[in-house]
Every structure is written in structure tokens, then in C-alpha cells.
Amino acid sequence: HRLPFKSLRNKMFLLFRKGAYVSSRGSAGLGLLGRPVRSIGPSPNLLHTRRWRSFRFISRRQISTSATYERRHSWRFRALVFTAVSFVGLNRYVSKAGTDILSLSDEGLPLSYDPEQIERFWAEHPRIVLWRLRQLSIELIPFFSRWWIESKLYGFSENDLKRKASVLRKKLTDLGPAFIKLGQLLSTRPDILPQEVLSELQTLCDAVPPFPTSKAIEIFLEEMKPSSILQFENFNAETKPIAAASLGQVYKLKMLNSDNYVAVKIQRPDMIRTVSLDLYLLRKYAAFVEAFKSGLMEFGILSRRKQFDLDLVDCFARGSYSELDYCNEARNQELFLQDLVPRLRNRITVPKVYNEFTTRKILTTEWIEGTQLAQSSPEVIKRLVPVGVECFLEQLLQMGVFHCDPHAGNLLVDERERLVLIDFGLCAEVPRPDTKNLTTAVVHLMEGDVEGLLDDAINLSFLPTDVDKKNLLVELQRIFADGKLKAMVESNSKYQAVEQRRKKFEDVSRDLNSVFYRYPFLVPDYFALITRALIVLEGIAVTGDPAFDIFEAAYPYAFQYSLSNLGTDETLALGKAFARKGGTRESWMWNYVKRFI
Question: What are phi and psi of 194, to 5 degrees?
């Protein structure tokens, strides 16, 4: 009805070929039972109607012209019809797949992350895959298309980026646990996203409404012996969870015939299927992006560089999938209890695990009464934050295993005023060959030796060897100077700032993130996570001590570790090299070295 009369007339004629007639209003005539008329002229069944006068015949010449028109333009019409029919058919095909996933069994999905096995499983259920793909496409494609177009046409101010990032955070929350975890991972990757987006994603919270306790009891009985539930007092459908997250919820229960309380974490229904499906689609997308960029590199449109899209998705998927296995979390928790707690001379503690009540979907641990470190008194915060700094550096440099979710809710203070670590679902391994270079980098960071730190970044493969060191060094020196990462002097047995109070560690980190985004940094996940842990600790510390200096708190441990791994000569050589570059020998760091000697 939107086409010109002549075009529509020709279209209608070509649909019915011989015997077609067209009204001046653009309406095609059909014979009885909807069959086309077989001769040129009026349709018999309409011959005596009042509308006959509005019809006119089509000449043989017009027939020839219309046939040429068909050959030239009919493919567009057919493509449009095919697309419309395909869309409607696909929509009807996948419309009921949302209920199919609820009745699907977990059998066939791997216990640990195996992309090939996950792909084989979901290849057998294309209807569910298309249903989820349609959901994600409706939510994300319009959003990112609009983002890309607006960025190219108008560009984004800082406020525009914050607004877009806020919408992105809400969309990731609505898409479920896999995308919440993906947003939390991306919030630690300054080499991928600009700082405004990072700051918004760091506020992602996976707190969601709880599911019914009756369903939790069903899962408990499926995973455990029926008699196991009798070991807890008053665990019934009326019991309320004390916390609910995207993957599961926690109950505080009292053991039968005992004064001991335990924390029982029960996984949400259908989590393995839901998360594995999203990971499967994310991996397919990452493989497509890598193939597309490889093609652009082959044609010289993009400069050649190492692809990391698939590696990033696999790293994220491996961690997310391991969080679904509460037996893995129990092993991590026992490792920290047996290894980390003695290293820190019992200044921290970790809840013990009840293995007899722990399965893949259920985790039972000791209940430790305590308050969040961030809500403790200033005196407790001031005393325990240095312990927390040492705790995370110990994990990074000594244990080779790192707690990957160090937010304020996972740092508690017990009744004996010890630091308590909880929630070990996501832990990462630190490559052992990096520990020596990491030690040197930490010492250089403490000393503010920017040039040495840049060399360390290249040695750790954070930067390519052909990076523009001259311009990058200027940028880094400016950030360190703005942050007042200067030496501290000792005066009257108290440390005082040589210049004004330096920026908080979080501010310096934000400045560094913008550099990471603009230069070809490839930041390993564990390094981004230690930065996040120190930011969390610094944010808690300044509430108890506004003059808190996280570098000063970390330096004694870094120095001692440097001595044990690099030796006295090499450690002192680092300090002397820094002094030759212009560092002050009267700093609190140099005074610490002198006191040690």
C-alpha cells in the first residue's frame, strides 16, 4: 500500500501471470476459490458487480515490461518475504524453549570447565541455545549499536560514559549470574575498558531475592542422605536465609545436640545449566571476534598483535564454572586455613569446613560471629589493615594462590579481633616464574622508581618490548608526581609527609587505568586482582586513619620478602640504583633498610 500505483500494479500482475486484471486502486482480482483468472479480461464472479467499472485491462506490451521488471527486482521482494517468514518461524520455534531448560538434566555437563564437552552438550539442544541467543540479542545489540553510532557521530564526554556505563550495569544484572560475574571481571581490566566504565562496573552487586526454602530443602535432600537434614535443628520450609546471592543462599543453622552453629550454603536451582549455556555463547562470540580481527590483520587493516579475546573468556569461564563446584571452594578454604593462617602467625583465621555435609551444590562451614572490618572501630581498622595488606601480598608472592573476591563483605573481624577471610569460591593461581620479577616490581613501586617499574612491566610481559618507553615514561612520572608518591622522612620518631598528603591509592590506580587503556598493556588477571584488593583495604583504612599510607604499610613485608628471595646484595642494590636515579636516601624506606642493617 506504500508503493506507487504503477509499481504495485505490475507486482500484482506478475503474481498471477495470465488473466490478471488490476483495479485503479491497486487491488488484484482473483477468480473463484482464490485461483487466478486464466484469460485477459474481467473475472466472471465480479463481472456484474458495481466495482467492475473501476477495473481496466493490461495490454500485452505492459506484460512484457512487467516481466523485465520482475527479472530485475523480484529478488528483493523474495528476500524480504523470506526474512519475514524466517523470523516468524524462528520466533515460534524458540518461544517455548524457556520451559525446556527447566526440565533438562545436568547429566552430560562436565564437573570442571571443559569447553569441548559443554559445546557437545548444547549442540544437542539448539532450540534452547537460540532462545537464549534471542534474549541476549534483544537486550545487548540495540544498546551497543547505539553506543557505537553515538561515539562515532558525537563522541562521549565523561558524563555520557558514566550514564552509558550505568545502563550497562543494569543490563548485566538483569541477564543473570554469568553476566554479573563477567561485569565484575571486566571491572578489574583497565586494559580493556575506560576508567568511567570500570568505576561503574565495580559497583555491580550479585545480591538477588532468595528462592523458597522448600526448594533449598529439596536440593539438600537430593545431594545428601535423607537422614543428614536431621543433624540440624529447625531446618524447615519456614527457615529464612541470612544472605542470598546470584549463585546460592546461606542459612545459619544449629547442629543437633551441640552449641555449634554452621553456615550452610545451597546453590540455586538450574545454575549449572544456566551458567554453562551463557559461557558457551560467550565463547562462540569471542571465537567470532578473534576470527574477524584475524581477517582484518591479514588484509593489513589492523596491525598484528596477540589475540586475547578467547583467552579472556576461557579465564573467566574457568573461574565462574569453578564457583559452581562447592567441593572446589571447600578445598580452597582448607588450603588457606592450613597454609596461610600459620604463615601470618594466627593473626587471621578462616572458617573450617564440614566435609561430611559438603557436596557439589552444598557447602557447610563453621559459623564465625563477627562484624565487617569496614564497620569496626577506627582503632581495630588501623591495627588490622596492615595485616590485610600482608595477607594479600603473602598470597601473591609466597603461596601462589590468590583470593579473587576481596570485597568488604568478605573481610570480617571476630570476637578475638582477628581478621577473618570468607568466600573462597573464586581463587586464582599466580605463575611461579613471575615471583622474582614481581618482587622487584613491588620494591620499585614502594620506592616510586618509575623507570625501574616500566622495565619490570616489560619483563613481566605486561608490555611488548617495542613499546614507546619515552612517552610512556613521561605519562607514568606525571601520575606518580601528581599522586605525591614521594619519600617519607622520619622526624621525632613519627613519619611526616615531605609534601602534602598524597592522593589515595584508588586515585592513583584510576590514573594508571587510563594509561593501561591507551597503551598496549596486557594485564594478567592476578595482577589486576591484587590492585583491587589493595584498593579495598585502602578504602577501609582511611575510615579509621585518614593519614593511612598503604605503601608504607606494605613496604616492610615487601622488603623482607625481597631479602629472602633476591638476597641482601641485590635488595640493597635496588635501593642504591634508586638513589642514583634521584631518589632520596633519607626516605622512610631507606631508614627502614638502615635499621635492618
Answer: -70, 160
